[in-house]
């Protein structure tokens, strides 16, 4: 999820200016192969995109995950104006991230921490989609770059190991993936005497209104979507939120309000270029 | 200090330092590392340290928010026969779950000095 209109428009312009040598290589471009080839470009599909530079992952975006702009502005670290300024001025040169540091808006450490957190968060949902009928991205747009610019590239094997570890963490916490995509319904037990849930989970529980799904709660809190998912699983394990029946029809839930359909943006761009 | 690598390089100058890493305790992922990791390697040490961090961070006995103090747990100190393991939580003004993990040779290290240096390091990491 990009943080508001400026992010989206800069993203599409930036990709549009990239020299697009779309993807006619044989076979489905897999992450392993792109890493081995040292590829540069975007591996994209309807669940999001992974951006690679020289075979390492430099950015990930997923419509269900709060992006960096959202994270930095939700807690008040940056004003929306400061973020938009960096996107508008640094985006065309693919260096919006570095511009934030050069202008003294963020320390390099903050930029790296916030970006890595957003990158791993999005990559989890790109490679392990919530909607089980979706699959990981399989289209590759060569030479596409992201407007944030490279910040701290992540080797593909590190990313894949981390996604696997996150899957196992969820499974260990409460082996019911049904809670991941369903509205979070608190169980009112009227008993507030016992030890309450830990601080992060308390915020998630307080935001659970029986309508919002875990990723919508994450967005409302400006928080990691994976951490929120893990909290919801732990709350379910503790009996504090309801676990939907496995055979119940999955409630699709409304799509996040301003989610860019990335593959659609790519199709529009391709069509414009074909004119 | 230039970001994560600069922070870790400085951590390695703390007397007795054998290894340092910056770890996300939600999952146990090492975001960066320097020097050597205790026992096996950085990656498994990071995952183990993250378990400890999460237990401390998420249990009400340690996190009871008296007064208006921010950031409930600051450091975790594990003393072993030959080494110290120090974990220092990094406070950020955006959502994060990160700590700096320092592994020290007990014979060479000074615990008070190391804790003091670690505090300064984590503060400057996020100081614009």
Keywords:
heterodimer, A: 275 residues, alpha+beta, 2 domains, six-stranded antiparallel beta sheet, 12 helices, 9% strand, disordered N terminus, B: 128 residues, Beta-Lactamase, five-stranded antiparallel beta sheet, 35% helix
3D architecture notes:
Chain A is an alpha+beta fold and 275 residues long. In chain A, 47% of the residues lie in helices and 9% in strands. Chain A folds into two domains: 5-167 and 258-274, no CATH class; 171-237, no CATH class. Chain A has helices at 5-17, 31-37, 68-74, 80-90, 96-102, 108-127, 156-173, 178-181, 199-207, 214-221, 225-237, 262-274; strands at residues 21-22, 41-45, 48-53, 56-61, 139-142, 154-155. Chain A is globular. With 128 residues, chain B is α+β, with helices and mostly antiparallel strands. Chain B has helices at 3-11, 42-58, 60-63, 111-125; strands spanning 17-24, 29-35, 75-79, 83-89, 98-105. A five-stranded antiparallel β-sheet of chain B has the order 2-1-5-4-3, with helices on both faces. The mean pLDDT of chain B is 89. The chains are: A alpha+beta (275), B alpha+beta (128). The interface between A and B is large, with 38 and 33 residues.
List the helices and strands and how they pair.
The complex is a heterodimer of chains A (275) and B (128).
Chain A: H1 5-17, E1 21-22, H2 31-37, E2 41-45, E3 48-53, E4 56-61, H3 68-74, H4 80-90, H5 96-102, H6 108-127, E5 139-142, E6 154-155, H7 156-173, H8 178-181, H9 199-207, H10 214-221, H11 225-237, H12 262-274
Antiparallel strand pairs in A: 1-5, 2-3, 2-5, 3-4, 4-6
Helix pairs in contact in A: 4-5, 6-7, 7-11, 9-11, 10-11
Chain B: H1 3-11, E1 17-24, E2 29-35, H2 42-58, H3 60-63, E3 75-79, E4 83-89, E5 98-105, H4 111-125
Antiparallel strand pairs in B: 1-2, 1-5, 3-4, 4-5
Helix pairs in contact in B: 1-4
